[in-house]
Structure formats: structure tokens, C-alpha cells
Design a protein that fits this description.
Structural class: mainly alpha
Keywords: Hydrolase, Membrane, Transmembrane, Transmembrane helix
GO molecular function, one term: hydrolase activity
Protein name: Metal-dependent hydrolase
Strand content: under 5%
Number of helices: 5
Shape: globular
Pfam families: YdjM
Number of domains: 1
Bound molecules: zinc ion
Order of helices and strands: HHHHH
InterPro entries: YdjM-like
């Protein structure tokens, strides 16, 4: 996926996340979009820094980097949400390119892609970006709305209330 695709994906994802996390449509929704959107967009741009430093689609396109950004806020209390941007960048590079990325770098240099991956330069890459964004938001919505609801109902049944 090219830079434009990564930025658009991050912006659309942030808008969607803002509404999922704060569906009121009020000023609070707008605030949530900013709070989540800025770090997500920065995270979505970060992996391609390895076009200049290191090996592209390897050095900053792997699971240890993602784990590092996921864990960072737990230990240091900032950079929250950046990992979401990193993750969506990986998903787009896997689905929105023929080449894939080296998920297990530096342990294993193999690049993993999808057989349905579309060429970065093709027209279909924009469509793929939208499909990926919608799928990501659907998964997040499932986690935010459906699973807690089911858990709540299950515990209610177990308690017999
Ligand atoms: Zn990339």
C-alpha cells in the first residue's frame, strides 16, 4: 500500500473508531476521534520509515515491533493507540500489495502476503483499502458492542437474574 492509502485508511479508521467508542455524535465524539486519530495516523505512517532506515517491509514491518508498541503504554504510560496504526499498516501491506511483509523479522526473513493481495499501483488498491477499513471497524464494533453484551447476558443467566 502506498502512503496515500495508509493515511486514508488511518483517517477513516479513526473516524469510525471515534463513533464506535463514543457514538453520541457530540463534541465528545469529535474529541475521541482526535485522541485516537492522531496516534493511529502517526502509527500508520511509522513502519515505512524503513524505506530509509533498514530493510523495507522487514525492519519495521514485523510482529516484535507491533508487540513493542502495544506494550509501550503499559510500561511508560504514553503512546497509547499507536499500535493500532502499526497493525492497520501491516494489514494493508499484506492485503494491499503482492509482496507482503516479514512478520517474523529478524528471526525469519520470509515475507507473508495474501493470495488476494492487489498490486500497490493498481486501481483496486483503493478498493482494497476501503474493504480492509470496513472489515477492521466491523471487528472492533463486534468487540465493543457484541461481546460485552453476550458476556453480560451469559453472566446474568449464570446468576439467574
Ligand atoms: Zn509498509
Amino acid at each position: 500500500m502506498n502512503k496515500k492509502g495508509h493515511v486514508l485508511n488511518a483517517v477513516l479508521l479513526s473516524l469510525g473508531l471515534g463513533y464506535i467508542l463514543e457514538p453520541s455524535g457530540s463534541l465528545e465524539t469529535f474529541r475521541t476521534i482526535l485522541v485516537v486519530g492522531v496516534p493511529v495516523t502517526l502509527g500508520a505512517l511509522f513502519p515505512d520509515v524503513d524505506t530509509e532506515f533498514g530493510k523495507h517491509r522487514k525492519t519495521l514491518h514485523n510482529l516484535p515491533i507491533l508487540a513493542g508498541f502495544y506494550a509501550f503504554p503499559i510500561f511508560f504510560g504514553n503512546l497509547e493507540f499507536v499500535w493500532i496504526g502499526i497493525l492497520t499498516h501491516y494489514v494493508l501491506d499484506i492485503a494491499g500489495s503482492k509482496r507482503g511483509i516479514a512478520l517474523f523479522y529478524p528471526l525469519w526473513k520470509k515475507e507473508f502476503g495474501l493470495p488476494i493481495g492487489v498490486a500497490v499501483s493498481s486501481k483496486r488498491s483503493d478498493i482494497m483499502m476501503v474493504i480492509v477499513t470496513v472489515a477492521e471497524l466491523a471487528i472492533v464494533a463486534l468487540f465493543v458492542f457484541e461481546i460485552p453484551q453476550r458476556g453480560f447476558e451469559m453472566s446474568r443467566q449464570m446468576l439467574g437474574v
